[in-house]
Design brief:
Structural class of chain B: alpha/beta
Radius of gyration of chain B: 21 Å
Number of strands of chain B: 17
CATH topology of chain A: Rossmann fold
CATH superfamily of the largest domain in chain B: HUPs
Strand content of chain B: 25-35%
Order of helices and strands of chain A: EEEHEHEHEHEEEEHEEEH
Order of helices and strands of chain B: EEEHEEHEHEEEEEEEHEHEHEHEH
Distance between the termini of chain A: 57 Å
CATH class of the largest domain in chain B: Alpha Beta
Strand content of chain A: 25-35%
Radius of gyration of chain A: 21 Å
CATH class of chain A: Alpha Beta
Shape of chain A: globular
Largest sheet of chain B: 9 strands, mixed
Structural class of chain A: alpha/beta
Number of helices of chain B: 8
Largest sheet of chain A: 9 strands, mixed
Distance between the termini of chain B: 58 Å
Number of domains of chain B: 2
Number of domains of chain A: 1
CATH architecture of chain A: 3-Layer(aba) Sandwich
Strand order of the largest sheet of chain B: 9-8-7-10-6-1-4-5-11
CATH architecture of the largest domain in chain B: 3-Layer(aba) Sandwich
Oligomer: heterodimer
Helix content of chain B: 25-40%
Amino acid sequence: MNIIVLIKQVPDLVEELELDSSGKDLDREWLKYKVNEFDDHALEEALLLKEEHGGTVTAMALDGQDIDKALYAAAAKGADRVVKITGLEGNPSNHEAAKAFANAISGMDYQAVFTGVQSVEDRDGQLPVLVAHYLGIPHVSVVSGVKIEGDKAVVYKEYGGGMMAELEVDLPAVLGIQAARETPRYVPVARVRRAMRSTEMEEVSAGDVSGAAAGSEVARMFKPETGQGAEMLEGSAEEVADKIVSILKEKGIV
Amino acid sequence: MKVLVVAEHLNGKLEDITFEMLGKAKELGTAEVALLGHNAKDLAAQLGKADSVIYMDSPELAEFNPDTYSKGLKAIVEARQPDIVLVGNTSMGMDLAAALSVDMGMPLVAYAIDVAADKVVSSLYGGKMNVESAVSTPFIASVLAGSFPADAGRGEGSPAVEEMAAPDFGSVKVRFKQLIEPEGGDVDITQQPILVSVGRGIQSEDNLPMAEELANKLGGAVSASRPIIDNKWLPKTRQVGKSGLKVKPKLYLTLGISGAPEHIEGMKDADLIIAVNTDLKAPIFDYAHYGTTVDLFDLVPALTEKL
């Protein structure tokens, strides 16, 4: 069972987001990046399956901000290979990214591709289904929990209201992972540093991504108009607690 | 403008997103609904606002299946040549929209909160930034639930229902096994009058008892946003939001929840929302009635003490 996990760095939303001078993109100069949290779950699920069934896990990412660190962290967690796709400039659309991943993956020996079901930057659609259709293999999105049964995977696809569908998928397939069965593992920085020294970073060219069905472009970005907005309660913790208690009393809640 | 709305149904019931998109489609032009299923033609009767319904029936479409539904939808889009296709940015819609985009070479704009003939506005970055895309028809927009009023898409009427034969699905690579209902046994958060809801800001599982204690004092229960559930700190039955439960308590007190659109969808109708988050820019404050940026680790003990 060889699993390829696609990972991506995304802006850390804890930081204030500002627009650049074009008004069409974030001001990325000072932006802090982190691994897309769902990709972390995708990697964790892949590592769990490797522990159960053997095989390899390959972490793959497009070249970009802090990506080496993210790939070495994947290696430190247990990925056997790390692959960086080079040659895409700027911020490629997800269609272009998906095509580059499909180009790289199509020649490899694999049974499954896992990636986060979504990220905060999926303007032109979520990555897993795009990759699947460029590869021409089946896909399931919003998966939490994967079992491997021979050349098939049994997956749990989440719907609203806590409902889930159990689906059986022929491999190879692309799964958009919502949550791994376990909390994504943590690796200390020292182990990432060791992985940096002991892991070979493979580089693969993005290949031809022309014709990726993007067909739409950003006209502008703007901060959403805030609604009524909350009445902010100011003061020390004690003072704010008093204010909340009096609101709750006034509304007859306590 | 010909708009095709992809109906979403589960367990024999049309989901609200269908009506939300249908209302918007009527605003944009003529609205046709694509309804795929098996013995599901009756659902068309609820689509009174549509100008027409195209119904595709097959045993392979009895339950949602990313493989057969993608193939069926592609056949409908090829036959009807709509200018705009509206799909839910939902669990089902995610498996359809991008597939259609690649197969038909049609541009796709996701997380749509507004759609016009030449532009789509998406809510990205956890609701912190809107992005307007310039588009030309034909295009696909996947629409965030709750962006348009469902009532605008409900109404009396008897649209023409045209049946279309399902295409040859070829080798079907995904098979539906069963639908799993949420586990019972734990607290039913949809029935609780008061919810203390914890998010990423609670930082550690070890801090949950603090929230439990506050909830007990208030006579309610603890619910949570997605990251807490994904970390297995609380069971799935406690999750509020898009893939969790919709709640409408008398009081919804959030601790360290930023308010991503997926969470807002599940709680915005609560009678009273009080948000505690150290980030003044957190979207949750746009929906809360009262808010504070006081650190929850200082506030919660003080509040519990005073109750």
